[in-house]
Design brief:
Strand order of the largest sheet: 1-4-3-2-5-6
Number of domains: 1
Helix content: 10-25%
Shape: elongated
CATH architecture: 2-Layer Sandwich
Structural class: alpha+beta
Distance between the termini: 70 Å
CATH class: Alpha Beta
CATH topology: Alpha-Beta Plaits
């Protein structure tokens, strides 16, 4: 496995430093922009927490609790993990990561699904006589 997408959560929480608003910073991020993964071993909730910092040095959240121990183990072991911003999501954001010195690439964009028929049909408007 060379690349995968990971989710960032905690976007609604304030940053401890008071520097920046996570949701606003996510809106400033552009697909393909580098992000930094930072180990946070003194995190009182999770010693495997991995903080995600934007290219401007503002925290945008944390990797999910399901993936953080795995990525934290790689980072502690000296394995190179590179990450780029993929997109904003409802809980926060999605990142694209690559391992062992590889450069992550964005997956192909998919067109949003369109509904061929509208949900309603407007009433006919009679002509003026």
């Amino acid at each position: 496995m060379r690349e995968l997408s990971l989710y960032v959560v905690g976007a609604d929480h304030p940053n401890r430093t008071g520097k920046g608003n996570r949701r606003f910073e996510i809106l400033l991020c552009r697909p393909g922009e580098p992000v930094l993964l930072v180990l946070e071993p003194r995190n009182p909730v999770d010693p495997d927490a991995v903080m995600v910092m934007s290219a401007r040095g503002v925290q945008i959240g944390y990797l999910t609790a399901e993936r953080a121990p795995w990525i934290a183990g790689m980072l502690r072991g000296g394995r190179e993990v590179r990450a780029i911003f993929q997109q904003a999501t409802r809980p926060g954001a999605a990142l694209r990561v690559a391992f062992d010195g590889a450069t992550p690439t964005l997956p192909p964009a998919t067109a949003p699904a369109t509904d061929p028929a509208p949900d309603f049909w407007p009433d006919e408007i009679p002509p003026d006589d």
